[in-house]
Amino acid sequence: MVLNYIWVAFFLLAFVIATVKLVFWGDLEVFPAAFEISLGLTGVLSLWLGIMKVGEKGGVVNFLARLLSPVFTKLFPDIPKGHPVTGSIFMNLAANMLGLDNAATPLGLKAMEQMQELNPKKDTAWNPMIMFLVLNTSGLTLIPVSIMVYRVQMGAAQPTDIFMPILLATFFSTLAGIIVTSLFQRINLLNRTLLLTLGGACALVAGIIWGFSQMDSDTMNKVSTTVANILLMLIIVSFIAAGVRKKANVYDAFIEGAKDGFTTAVRIIPYLVAILVGIGVFRASGAMDMLIGGMRWCVELTGMNAQWVDAMPTALMKPLSGSGARGMMVDAMTTYGADSFVGRLSCVFQGSTDTTFYILAVYFGSVGISKTRHAVACGLLADLAGIIAAIAICYLFFG
């Protein structure tokens, strides 16, 4: 409801400004292609969700859950060992990492219900609930399917060139979320399991960043795109192999997922049309230029490079609304080009974090939590870390 009021106020303000501008200063052009973009997503989205469903039937989600079990046991020390909620948490996070939103949300709601049964104060967020939600809002995703699909639709020369930057940026967002939440909850991050896991992941990421920093920009883009394409192909092959190994009906599973892809593409049409029209009016009114110009002026006062400011609308919208941030990302690629620095950075912003306030509202609201404690602060700090990391990484890869 709050997001609805925000969107309505945003649209009405922009509409009034745009109308005044139309009357006094000339023509008004509103972004016209939202419907075509949504329809163009159908094929690729159906393909990828079909592949994801095959992986799900093949037990890939269960495998990731078992793989992550020792780590998440340490991150949720208040949950009794062997409690069924542990499985729901692992399944939700594994589904999120694979981009299986349709599977992740029901699993997340189930996990919240199970944690609420253990919660000593039913109206107050329990520590495991907060850690669980921060891990969700930090947006750790191994395969940013939807973003690559949008880049295909917007005519990017190499739609997968943002794969590695998103993976790195979302890692920093998730790492920051874990550290901040652990400090609030006094979880010992120096125990052997967490130290080896997080330390090893940091060392791997540091090695990747160092390796790419030794390359010139052309070589970096070629290597990044090649690695992304190889990884995506390996994922597709491994998912199909897992389905065959489990003796699942791969064809039926793919069709089931493809149907979800078609349904998803159709379902987002009204949302994408609405938000892109609102953004088009907002941009035509001159309000977007005023906002970005003010931010650029502040940044330039410090002597910093302000090229990244034009992509900030996506980052600012992401905690509030996934569809709004998606619209900002598409608008950035339309305005500046899918292969421009701003277009790529907006994609990395979109993939580095998740919709913090929306997730908190849905998950806490589902179990009647009214006192969120440090959940919002931890979620927003993770978002901030993701934004800073995205800017730095994009300068490394595309600057």
In the predicted model, the low-confidence regions spanning at least 5 consecutive residues are 21-32
State the oligomer: single chain
Helical content stands at over 70%
Helices, by number, come to 18
Structural class: mainly alpha
| Helix-strand string | HHHHHHHHHHHHHHHHHH
Give the beta-strand count. Answer: 0
How would you sum up the global shape? globular
Describe the structure.
- The chain contains 18 helices and no strands.
- With 399 residues, it is mainly α.
- The radius of gyration is 21 Å and the shape is globular.
Give me the secondary-structure topology.
Layout: H1 2-25, H2 34-40, H3 42-57, H4 60-75, H5 85-97, H6 101-118, H7 127-137, H8 145-153, H9 163-185, H10 192-213, H11 217-245, H12 250-284, H13 287-301, H14 312-317, H15 322-336, H16 341-352, H17 356-366, H18 375-398
Descriptive tags:
399 residues; mainly alpha; 0% strand; globular
Summarize the entry for a quick read:
This protein has 399 residues and is mainly alpha-helical. It contains 18 helices and no strands.
